[in-house]
Each structure stands twice: as structure tokens, then as C-alpha cells.
Protein 1
Amino acid sequence: MKFINDYSLLEKKISKYKKSAKKIVLAHGTFDLLHIGHIKHLDFAKKFGQILIVTITADEFVKKGIGRPFFKENFRSEMLKSLKMVDDVFIINHASALPAIKAIKPDFYLKGEEYKDNSKDISKKINLEKKEVKRFGGKIIYSGAITFSSSNLLNNYFSDLPIELKKKLHTFKKKGTLDKIISHLGKIRNKKILLIGESILDEYRYVEPLGKTPKENLISNLLRNNEVFAGGVLAAGIHLSSFSNNIQILTSFKNNLLNKALNNFKTKLKIKNLKLNTLDTIQKIRYVEKDLNRKLFQIYQMQEKLITNSEENKILNYLKKNISKYDVVIINDFGHNFFTKKIIDFLESKSKFLAVNAQSNSANQGFNLITKYKKADYVCIDYPEAKLASQNKHDGAEKLYNNILSKKIKTEKFAITLGKDGSIIFDKKNYFRLPAFSNRVVDTMGAGDAFFVVTSLFASCGFTVDELTLIGNAIGNLKTNIRGHSKRIDLESFLTYINTILK
């Protein structure tokens, strides 16, 4: 099938139809599982012209969530090409139909009836497509033929999700959770956010195993290439940058590689880099088997020093001058001595809305417990961290929170991420547990951090514990399918994923 990357080439291919003076109709979509609704949709389109062109989104640009598209681009293209009303099919290397519209300049552009209302356009691209069609004298036609969606069929008949989870997702659909999320986006986008914590340089070194050395019990590896990512609080800020226009990061780092890694993303982040002498950049080097994408081992480069009184005062002075500006303060505490008791006490007493995550990991040897914080509006940790903070190895998340953690930390909402089992979030009266939406994992690095920072924003807008589990699980699933911090979780992908799983 014809894969289009050069749109001038598409224009040349369409010229043969233009010369015949025949009316051209363009239909665009994913067409992931062709069904009778699509057939009627395309039949309707063909009534308006002699030539029906269908463009489909290439696999790389389909943003319907984990495991989508279900059918690959060539298969989708072949199915469409076999239909008698379709004259030509092109796979386009873009997330929107806009470049194809500019190249083809159709007389009519076909959309489903649901796209008449611009407010329901999650991608925010449909309106641009409509304007482009009208710019050169084309017309928009709407077909009401599709009464059910490919996503709905795939969710109900091809999905391996448990029945209980499907029921819970259906409840979210009935109560209009997606509409609520969309209605709050303006409020979220305008919130002023202070994100505080340590910056980390995450490096992946990809190796190819050569075999055991002749004289020692060592496996020799050939270093192929490496990638460097901005991690820690910087990675959290990158994810949030798609949700909010007003993010200030307060951190400390002295490694120029972090600046280079940040330049890979077009963000609106403002970074206050304190460059504290005692807090040199933490560097995590992971050695990864290239072909299998399997992590072999990890090396830390860091110095463990307590910050000085003058450095503590430097942080406090910034906070005293600026804390009143921010609607939300988010603490990413990785346990490397950035947060002293004085700093914590100040943030707990002066923040309008305080969200806290304190990580217990191998680098801080498990000493960084959430219980060093006494109060917050929203807390998020993982299950092993909950067990460490509770000094209880065997109880489930419900018992740990109700019997121990709720008594140690005063908070409105408390989230515990459960890895492949999803998440559970408590408030003062209720809790809600939601399984993970997918077990397909590329890389788990940073999934919990992404879950935490995004749900913090929605928690600050009063979202309920059940709604927060849905939002958090969607974010976590999207992040586990990104290698390292090579891409951010963007708002469009998040909304499209929510929309897809609720159909």
C-alpha cells in the first residue's frame, strides 16, 4: 500500500484524478476494525463525487492507547482498498489529516456526525482540518451512519480485560468522567504550579552480550550506543508541561548533559537551578541488553552530603518570597537530602495545596519514608514504600492505610500504586481500587512519578478517589510504554486513551 511521507508526492498521485474533472471526496480515519458503520459511512461519501480517496493514520501516530491499532496499517489499508466504493487508499505519516487535505484539496471532506460539535474534538485538530477544506472552496459533509465504534467493538469482543474492570469502566462512562476531565482542563492549565525536588540524569547504555570470558566468570558485552534523559523532578515537569502553562521547577544540578536532554522537549518550563555545592547531579546509569530491551544492572554516581545551613536558607528564602504565588506545590522527594525538616515544615504550613511523594529506593537505602511528612492535601507512594513506612511486610494496602498510615499523616487523599495491579486511593470516608488497564510494558521507569504529578493536578481540582484512579492508571499505562524519558505524556494522548477505554 502507498505510504506517504512526502506530501508533494501525494499531490502528484492525485493529479490524475484532478485532470478528469471528477469530484473528489476525502475520508480520513484509523479504521481499526472495519465494520458495517464504516461501510455505510463510505457509501454515503461516494454519493457526493466520482472519486473516493481514503487516508488512514500510520501505526506510529495512532493515539488510542496501549495495543492500538489492533490491526496494523497495511492490513487496514488492504481492507479499505477491497471495498468497491473506494478508489484509492493512502497511509499518511501524520497524526492529523491536515497535510493530506492540503495536498489533495478535495471537493468534499467527510466526517462523522459527532464532529459537528467542535467542543467534543479531543485532538483539537478537527477544526483546523475544517478551516483548510473551506479555504480552497471545499465542503464538509457529515455522515450519521456510524452508530458504534471500532474501539467499542474491540473493547467488548477482543479485549482481555477482566469482566469486573469492564464494568467499572462502563460506570465511568455513564457518569461522564471524560466530560468532567475535559471541562476542568482550562482550570488546570491556568493553575500556577511549583514543582520541587532533585534532578536526576538517567542514562541508558545499550549493550550486546558477547559471551563468557575464557578465564573468569564474567559476561563480556559490546557497548553499542547510549541515551541520556532528564529525570527526577525535571522528567515530572516535562510530563506536566502538556497539562499546564505555569510550571516553576525548584531544583539543583550542575551537569550540562541535563540541559541537552531538556532541549529535546519543547516545553514552557521555568527552572530555578540553585546549583547547591553539596547536591551534585545524581546520575543513574542503566545497562540494557539492546535486542531484548532488558535491564542488566544499574550504577549510581552521586555524593551523599547534608546540605549546609546557608544552602538550606537559600531554598527557604526562595520559598518565602514566592510560595504565595502558587496554587499547587508538588514535592518529588527522592531522598537525597534536598528536603530538611525546616523546609518540610515551611511547605506544610504555607502551601495552598500540597502534594507529596517520598521515594524509598536502593540509592537512599530505604531511609526516605513518607512518614517524615506530617500533613499534605495529597500523598502518593507505591506499595513497597507503604510497607516500609508502616514497618509491616505482610498486610495489604487497605490495612496499611487504615491501621497505620492514616494515623501518621494528616491528608485529604492518599494514593498507593500497585504496579501491575493498578492503584488504590483513599479519602477520609472511602477508597477505590482499580486494576491496571494493560500488562504490556516497555519500561517501568518513571511510571509512578508520572502517575503522581498528573493526579496531583486533578486532586487539587476536587476530583474524587475513583476518578483519580482512572486518571492515574491511564497515565501509568501510557508511561510504561515509553522507553526511559524519550517522550512525554501529552494531553492529547491521555484524553484519547481515556476516550478509547471508556467506549
Protein 2
Amino acid sequence: MKYIKDLENLNEKRVLLRLDLNVPLENGIITDQTRIEKIIPIVEFLLEKNSKIGGRARKFTAKGFTFDMGPSWYWMPDIFEKFFSDFGKDINDYINLKRLDPSYRVYFPENEKIDIPADYEELKELFEELEEGAGEQLDKFISQAEVKYNVGVKNLVYKPSLSVREFINKETITGALKLDIFNSMYKHIRKYFKNEKIIKLLEFPILFLGATPKNTPSLYSLMNFADIKLGTWYPEGGMHKIVEAMVSLAKEKGVKFYLNEEVKSLGYNNNSISYVITEKKTFDADYVVCSADYHHFDQNILKDKFKNYSKSYWDKRVLAPSSLLFYIGLDKKLRNVKHHCLFFDKDFENHAEEIYTTPRWPSEPLFYASFTSKSDKSVAPKGCENMFLLMPVAPDLEDNKIIRDRYFELILSRLEKITKQNIRDHIIYKKSYAINEFKKDYNSFKGNAYGLANTLFQTAIFKPSLKNKKLTNLYFSGQLTVPGPGVPPSIISGNVVANEILKKF
């Protein structure tokens, strides 16, 4: 008996197979799909550079505290639900989700703070208090944002963006006209609102995740719909529970995981990859999906003749921010804070300019603080608080302990002053993480944290392609390719790649 792998000269050929399977039936319904699942193309193994699964969504524990290392916002719950439903699973069988209320708290100058309610009608009332007529304007703004979400997220982002022809059909063109892609978020928001606090509330996802509002297409108001209507959620135990759920599902499907297996080189057979080489082992490969840093794999792992892009191409990409992070354990509970806190007590546009226009360490930075122990007793010892601080910064800046310590003192002093309490005397654990670690742990291009900025000419077909143009079996997923940065888009990119590979069968 010969197996398919034993046959020669099948490269680039379609092979028609007839499979007759004996499966258990009851009243005409298949009761056990094991044999069917065994013949479906599936990921055989995953190679992980680090000692823990999850990439930027890893976790670590120290002195009884559990810290999510990166993502902390659970937005766009429908994307997560779809991922599990595609496998016939319910996400609620894997993780316990709770909707946060308030969604988050924002601190403004002059000791003013605003809690963003989960209830939409309450939010309308809040907007009305800030600006007469803003409640009705919010209806109009969100209605358009919902159209963009339905067209963009439920249709366009699931396209591989390999050719402009994908978008040349009546449905897509009609949808695209509704996306208002040639207008900026800056102008779009100001068509509806004049109050600066409202404007900052609607602009913040742009600043933290991609580009200045002036350089971001108004398409991305879909993020405001995700925030306001779909809500801010939290998986009990932390964001890493999502990773654990995905790993559990993958293992159910037979996927093997190999840790501390950084890919060093590849073996080629003409115009395809035949095996993957790590420091420890060689792995045969039918298809390769790179979810690691795209730039690193393209420039440092592939042979020159197989690179998708030139060095100059990458140098011209506009990157989203990197981050300076602090993981803090406190021996007391804090007052005057919520699960998510945004500190907009300093000039919003000045910090944006210091990230995107004239990259440098910020003079008076905005920052974000997360206190997951406010919602989850399991992530901190009894009577203690888990504190996560994030300051967005330009990528590829000089990064050292002196700089980090200076910003920690600056942020902590403002945090203490604004929340009116002593914090520094209660720190029992502290760890920092910034540009140097992003490069070391993830081979991150210029130490970026979020991928490419969401500019018009870095959207859809203008992003680095999810398929290698010279190798038949190499694909890319993650935040540097379509559809873009963030956890939900990265999940979508994996879905799109999987569908592209399945087309080969």
C-alpha cells in the first residue's frame, strides 16, 4: 500500500480522492465524526519561540499576582464567538465572560472624571449633559458606525485582500460607499460633536491603536460601535483565558504544541517550503502559517529570492505605537479607580504628535491603568490590588532603565495625585516591559506593540499580503497583515488564511 506522501511529482497538481467512510449512524444522523475529522486538513503542530503560549497575550504570575502581559480590553465579542462556533463550539463552555459597568473611567484635567456606562441610554444622557443635543447626535453617529461595522467587519475584513478584484462586485462596492473611507476620523467626529471631552472619548481607540485621528479613515468609527454598543467585557481569570480556551480546542483537534522552538531557517523544494528548522529539530511541512512578526520572518528567515518585500518597503511602513508597561502588585486595595482607567489629564494632541509626527519620548504622556482585581479576586492575594500601567510611545526609541524609572515616577505621581491616595509605599512587586522586550521576545519590528498604523494606504490591499508571492505554501497571519492590529483582527486573519489554504483541497 502506498500513501499519498509516497507518490512523486504531485507538486502543483490536484488529486481527486474518493473516500468511503464507515461512520456510526442513529436515525440517519452521524453520532461520531472522528473519522471524518481525521481526513480534513488540520494544523498538525504549532511552534512557539517562547516558553509560554500566547505571544503578546501571555500571562505571568509573581508573589500571588497574575498579570496579563499585553491585551486587556475584550471588545468585539462576536469575533470570539464566531471563532468557536466555526468548530461547533460555544465560547461559554470555555470562559466565563462578564460585561463591565462602567465600561471604563476617564480622568480629565482639573480633577474631573467620567464613568462610561454600559447602558446606551445612560450614555446618551451623559453626552447630553456634556453638550446640548449630543444625545441625539450620538444616535446618528452610532447608526453610521453600525453600518460600517456590519459592512466592514462582517464582510470586507474576511476577504484575503490579495487582489482588488475581490472588492469589485455590487455588494462590496455598495458597502464601500457607506464606509466614508476618504474622510478622516478627526473631521467625522467633529461633524457631530463640539465638546472636547466627547471628542476625546471617541478618539481614544485611534490614538492607542493606530494613528492620529487626522490620518485615520472615518471607517474606523466602527470601533466606537464596538465600544459603545457591543460593550467592554472581561473573561474571568484574565485575558489569557482566551488563549487557554483556544489551546484546549486545538488540542481537542489533535494539534501538538512545541515550546521554546524558535524557527531559524527553512528547507525548500523548488517554490515551496518542505520543512521548518529550529535549534532543536526539523519539522516537515505541507503548509506554513507564520503568526510571528511578519517583518522578521520575511527579512531574516526567508532566503533573499523568496522575500515578499524589500528593506526599503518595510522602512516606509507607518507603525502603530509601542508601549511602556508596568506590572505592579500592591499590598492594599485602592480607592477611586475602576477596572479600566484612562488618564487624559494632559494634552491629547501633543502626545499623539510625539508618537506619530515627531517620534520621541513624550513630555506629558497620557496613560492607561488597569486594575483587574477590581473585577476578579483570583488575580491578586486577598486584600491586595493588581495594577497594570500602559503608556503608548513611538516605536524604535532608545530604551533603558533610567528612562523607564523616570516615567514610572511621573506616572505614579500623577496617579497618586488624581486618585488622592498613597500608592508607592504599598508596592510589593514591580516589573517593567518596553521596546527592548518587544524586540527580544517577539522579534517585533522596531519594537512595535500593535502592528501597522490604521492609515488609508495601510488598509486592505495596501497591507503586507497574507500570502507569500513566491512560495506556494507560505501564509502570514497576525497584526502586520490583513485586517490589522488588535486581538479580534488577528483572530480574523487566522480565519482568512485557513480558508485560503482550504481552497487548495
Protein 3
Amino acid sequence: MNAESGKSLSIWAATYDVPEFGPLENDTHADICVIGAGITGLLTACRLSSKGKKVVVVEDGSIGSGETARTTAHISSVIDDRFYEITRLHGEETCRLAAESQLTALNMIEDLVIRYGIDCDFRRLNGYLIFRPEEDADDLENEYHAAIKAGIDTQILPGAPIEFASSYPCLMFPMQAEFHVLKFITAISKLVISNGGKIYTNTHVKKIKEEDDRVKIITSEGKIITAEHAIACTNSPISDYFKIHVKQAAYRTYVTGFKIEKGTVPEGLFWDNEDPYHYIRTYNDGQDEILIVGGEDHRTGQEEDPEKRYENLVQWTLSNIPAAGEIKYKWSGQVMEPVDGLSLIGPDPESKGRVYISTGDSGMGITHAAFSSIILTDLICGIENPWAKIYDPSRITLKAAPEFIKEGFNTAVQYVDFLTPPEKSDTDDIEPGTGAIMETGSDKLAVYKDTSGRIYKFSAICPHLKCVVEWNKAEKTWDCPCHGSRFDAMGKVINGPALADLKSVN
């Protein structure tokens, strides 16, 4: 939603400049307004505009500046929450359809790269799911059989082709892929424009107003886009509605990029079954070969020391991959984890049928974006889609009730922050360049001290559903522990579902 989703800079943002588009300066009309110019929004806009729809895309920052720039850009047909778990929760047929959507998404991206000659460092390579022996021994067999039944090609290997896991059994998934995500979406944005679409950046959506025969999207500058349909492709839907936010939870994930000598780490996508898990790939940034290692996930706003997560990631890497050298990149991102393991794509459950959402990527944001674009286009164009039902945001998954209760309880507990003592009692105790929660009477304040010592005060109450935000020391942001809204140090909203900034009390 913003050019700055935190202070860290990913390898993609550091090595490529996306094109600039101007802000929306006048009221306009479209068939469809897509909110969010990340990979999901742009692929959806591209597909709809190719069908002859008049499409307008609005983005708070620059294209890809939200979570798209913060991915590790694995392109995998392998369901992150495990095929056997999807089978348990939803049945074999739903698992087969989910696998089909993942595989179609991967092939769709390759087709676009080939058809339009997109230079984005796309390449096919094998993926390896590593099973550490101390974890549940049945997991490998269960996942193998579930994947085969779902139509996914895989095989059991006695060891992974990477030194630290050479004696650990693994599942090998052939023909997975990787690319440079910002190079890819830049090409997609050009296709949107060539199809007659419009893209407006640095345009913040303040409100979505749904009427019987249209939707009005209102910006912070008071400009209005009138459309037949609106699609929120903003990681978490930007709305004050409640239903969708109890079906998923926001998690932070961390990434570190190490210099390595070329050839010391084999090519491939690697991930393990630890909790929290780790995932690995390599990329040449034009100067150095980089080992990209991600993981150490936690609920957004629920980690007192996010820098510790980076430290854990570094320690894990150095103990398992001695070839890892100097740290060149470090960044974090946000994923939305649905309670039943499947994305939420389709009409917003609390809309009148003209507002659509795409969320719940479950850490598979690239393929999620691709099959989202297919589903949303089909729904809006009145075309029957075989996957629409399984990803319907209105669905109820009874077997996921324990996870639903667990996540709901976690969210409810966060409101106890209203009763907890403040982190600091005096602004003198706040280090320059950091923030802390303080109190004035019964009011919770988010207090930021800049590097010059100037104090800024905001209401610590998230404008979404009134949870108390927490200071993120790693990204220099205020993060909501309930539903994942995030704000920069100066209180400006940078991630939904919140639409408004933290209220200044200076």
C-alpha cells in the first residue's frame, strides 16, 4: 500500500527501479477499480483489461511497493500448509482442485514470460521439502501420498542435494520456478496500459462506498472513482468489516541475504518442516551471488524484539550453511494465514456483491496472485470457474474450528493491552529513532522520538477495530497485533485493513 512498508529494503527493490506513474488528479469512471498495484492487482487488471474491461488501478505507493517487493519470489505449486492437511480439512477433491490452481498459476506465469519476452530472470528448477528426523516421521509419507492423489508430481529422496540436509529424507517437486518479481510486474503494468487500463500511484484509498448499482472509491485527496466493481488486492482487505478478519491472521516473516561463492550452494528451492520453518534460494544481484534465507514467522505485532528473529535466522544459516558470508540484505514481509489453509478470493462476505477481495495467500503470494487473477476475472465476466467455490470467502470449514478458536482467542487476548502498563513513563526514556507506548490519563499513546529528539504523539488505538498497536523496532513501524494493520513511525497507514492513519494528538 505504500512505498515504504518498513525501513528494510529487499534485494528486488535494491536492484531494480520500477516505473513511475502519476497520482489520480481528477474524478474518473471505470468498469473495475483494482485497489493495489502489487502482483495480484496488476495480474488481475491485466487479465480483465485483455477481456475489454475498462480498468483503473490505484496504489498508495509505487507499483509493487507493498508486500510484492518483500517476497522471496519462490514460484511453487506446492501448498504451504501441506496437501495432507488440506485433504483432512476439505477432502480429496478440494485438495485436487487447489493443487490444480497452483499448477495452473505457475504455468500461467511462465506462459506470460515466454509470450511477451519478459526479462525477469525466470527459471525452472526443482523444489525440495526437507523433513528433519526429529519431526513427525509420518509427515513425509502422508504428504507424499496426498500430493500424488492431488495430481502433483513428486518423489521421495533419501537426502536433499544440499550439504546440511544430505542425510535428511525429502520430497522432490520438479519444475518449480523463481524470478525477479519487480521486473515481472513492471512488464505486466505495461501490458495493462497497452490494453487501455490506467494506473495511478501515490493515491491512497480512504473509503470504499458501495451503492446498489455502483461502487465509489474515494481517495485521501477527495477524488472519486466510480466503477461497477471494486477489487481489493491489498494483502489484507482494506475495510472495517469483521467477518473476513476472523478467518485469517497476519504474520511477519524475515529474510536475510548472504554473499556466497557461486556454486557453493546448489540451485533449487529448499524449505523444511521445522516450526518456525526456513526456506532457501539463490540469486545473482549483478555483483554477487546471494543466498536468500527466510523464515522465523510470528504473528504481526506480537514479537517484543523482531531483531531477534533476524539473529535466529543468521544463526540457523551459519550453523547449516557454512558457505554463507557477509550479510548484504535484510528485510521482512507480511503474509496472511487463513485458518483453513486456503486463500479467500471472491465477493467480500459483507459487501452487496460489487466489492471483491483477494487475500489469505498463506505464504504462497506469487501463485496466489496468478490464480486469483483467473478466478476474479471469471467471476466478474460471468464465466464459471472450477476453483471459485473452494476459495469463496464466505465458506465455513467446520474441521478448521479448533484453529479458528485458537486464532480468535489470540486476537481477543490482544485487547488486554488496554489494561497493561505503558512501556515508558517518560519521553526521556525513549531512545532517538524509536517509539514506545505511553499513557495520558486513560488514553494509550504511540510516541515516536525522531533522531533529532523531536517527539511525535499519536493515538495508539488502531482505527480498524480499536486494538492497541505495538512498536516494531526492526521496521520502525507501529503494528497492530489483532488484524495486521501497520503504520509508519509518523502514524501513516502502510498496510490494511486500516484505511485511516493513527490520529495525531500533538
Protein 4
Amino acid sequence: MIEGILIGLETALSLKNLSMVMMGCFFGTIIGMLPGLGPMTAIALMIPITYGFEPATGLILMAGVYYGAVFGGSTSSILINAPGVPGTVATAFDGYPMAQQGKAGKALAIAAYSSFAGGTIATIFLLFAAPSLSKVSLAFRSPDYFALMVLGLTAVSAFSAKGQFLKAMMMVVLGLMLASVGQDSLSDITRFTFGNINLLDGISFVLVVMATFAMSEALTIILKGKDPSRATQQISFSKLGSIRLDKEERNKMLKSIPRSSVIGFLVGVLPGAGATIASFLAYGMERNFVNEEEKQKFGKGSVHGLAAPETANNAACSGAFVPLLTLGIPGSGTTAVMLGALLGFGIQPGPRLYMTHPEIFWSVIMSMYIGMVILLILNLPLIPYIARILAVPKNFLIPLILFFSVTGIYLMSFNNFDIFLMIGIAVVATFLRLYKFPMPPLILAFVLGGLMEENLRRSLLISNGSFEFLWDRTLTAIILILTVTIVSWQAYKSFKKRTNIIN
């Protein structure tokens, strides 16, 4: 291992590769800030550029773009409630309320520190545990994935305010319905397309996110006829851009980071899970770890609620490289694009990669830590200036949000239908927001719905239609027992509160 680390450092610290890390981090951060664009699109555009490079150099550049985009994606989530990348959706739940309270600088600082810590801890995990964790990822089967998705849906309790659990469940059902649109992956049967060929491939996740968050936020402000930025304009630059955290805020952040790093990395290791699911799971789990007073702050500007998803999504980015480098299985959509690039270089990722091409395996890992340091240095000094975006009047900012939303969706598919669909969903989402329906449960269900259905059907096929698969495998049973325990505990606490109120 020591020899591999030295090879990785020698390769990563060469002038060419170091410049690639810096370039990837910079462009990744900029792309991550732009709502509607993501690392997948950026990396796809990078592939033709990297064909003249050595495989290690090309992969280092693409890796820099990847975690740079996730790192920078929190900025638009916090400032304008328009997630730059899907992995930062959960960041907006508490980051945006903090920004509205005049704490944009603090929110961005918490996001930056948490991202750095999560990425660093996960890189250390990757360094020492990659070969072993590849065996763990292989142990997961369809029943285990199904159980994991059910566990993920229990996080809906984290997104429901007091007395709004029924509304949250209704949004879960709506999210599952949207996830079922299109061709069934196993039988190729079309569902809920209404004869429209544009819906055969289903509804894009980015489209739903942009419609329910960015566009609906803009439409809500227009309908209310208020300009929230007026209050912001009265805030001094120093207060707006303050990045100093007090002792209490630092303690809260330091409590969230270790457990969210572990959750994020482990979810990232699982092929197909990714940073989005990791951030949702970390957010939901974090709410279960804190006391009752802190739980009430979730969704209103909680430090725990901001630090947890930011830590987890960056940790998941590092974790996603485990199945890619050790198994040749992409851990996310972005690493799937990187897998195609590696195959284009004539490199076959797999269990023997760190033996046949140690310079690629170890240099990518070492460059990730270097990239995290660069991102922290790059982002922290700019926070006070980035935060000034809040002072821009909404009559200027709203058109920009709408422009980036429409442009981002169009550039993904070059299909006018997607624009009209996004507007339609945004209109519905706006009315739901006006009647206090929470949006996060819809997004959570939409993310998990497709994966849950796919793995359920596979499990049923393997077990010949029997539901015995739920308890036949020890791992599946453990995950489901954990799910039942969480639900039962939440139900018990709710019952206890009602009993105390009656008495």
C-alpha cells in the first residue's frame, strides 16, 4: 500500500496532473453553481478533450470536475433555492432558510467545511478500504437494495412538519406516480404515457427538481407579489458575507460530519445509489440523532440539516469510485460516463486495476484529497462576494432563475416537450406550495421509486413470486428490521406526545 501511495503522489503531484486537478475543480465549481447543469454533462463534454491525454491525467481531470460540481452545487441551492446538481437538493432544505435569515455567509461556510470534511474522510476510507469494500458491494443483491430503498422512504418523517405527516405521505405517493411514468425496464410495457412518445423514457429527475424548486420558487414569489430581497438589501455587506461560525454552530457541525461521512461513503459504494440518495438518507438519519429542540429547527435553518447532506454527498462522490475502480461497475450516472472514458483509453477497471495500472488507481485517490484542499481554498475567500447575490432584487433574479431552468433542461434533451412539461409541473408544485404541501417527500419518492420497483420485481422473479425474499437473506432482514424500528419509534413518540397533551 505504501508503494502504491508513493506512486499515486508522484503521479498526482506532477505539474501537468496538478494543473488538471485545479482546472477540473474550477470548472466543476462554476458548472455546479449553474442550475440545470451537472457533472455528468460536463464530464461528457470533457471526454473528447481528454483523448489526447494519458489515462491517469484524463481521469484526474474528470474526477476534479465531478467533486468540484458537487462542491459548488450547494451555492445555488443555498442562495436561490435552485439546486445546481441533484446531489445538493437536500442542501436547500435548511441552507435556503438560513440565507433568508441573513446568514448566507454562514450557510455557505458550513457547506464548504462540511463538503471538505466529508470528501477528506471518505478519501481516507477509499485509500485504506477500497479493496475490502469491493467485496461488500458485491454482497448486495436485489432484495437488499429494495430493503434499502424502503429504509430511505422512512426519512419522509424528517420532511414533515408538525401536523403535516398526511400531506407528506400524499407527496410521497405523487412522487412514486411520477417515477412510474414511461417504459417498464423489465417488460418494456409503457405506463401513463397517454400515447406521447416523449414520455417513453420517463420524466427526468433534473426536470422535476428544477420544476419543484427553482421555477416554483420564482412563481411563488410572483404570486405573493413580495420581494424578499428588500430586507436583504438592508443588511450590511459584512453581515451578509460573514463566514464566522460561533462555538455552538461549530459543535453542531462537528457532530454531524463523522456520521454523515460514514453514511455517504457507504451509500456511494453501492452501485447505482449515488450522492442524491446519500444526502437524503443522511438528512433523515441526522434528524433521528438530534434532540427534540433541534428536530423542530429542521427545514427552518438547522446547522445539522445543512451539514449532514453536504457531508454525505461529497463522501458519496469518493465512495462511488470504489465500485468503478475495483469492480468496473459505475457507482453513479457520472461514474458511468467515466467508465466509458476509461474503456476509450483501453483501460478495463476491475479487481486487478490497482495491480496492472497502479498509477491510475492511486493517483486518482491522491488527487481527490488535493482537489478537496484546492476547493476549500477556492471557495472560502469567495463566499462573501458570492453571498451578495442575495442583494440582487428579485425582479432581476427571477428572470435569471427561469432562464437557467429552461436553458438547462433544453440543453439536456434538446426537446421542447421537456420545457412545457417542466412548466406544467412547476405550476402544480406552486399551488401545492401555497397550500403548505412539502416538496422534499415528492423528490425523495421520485428518486427511490424507480429503483425500489426495479429491485422489487427482480426479487419477485428470483423467488418465483414469493415474498419470502424479505426474510430469506440476513442482510435484507436486518435492513427491514431497522426500518420497522425507526417507524415504530417515530409512532411511539407521536403517541406519547398526544397522550401528554390529553393529560
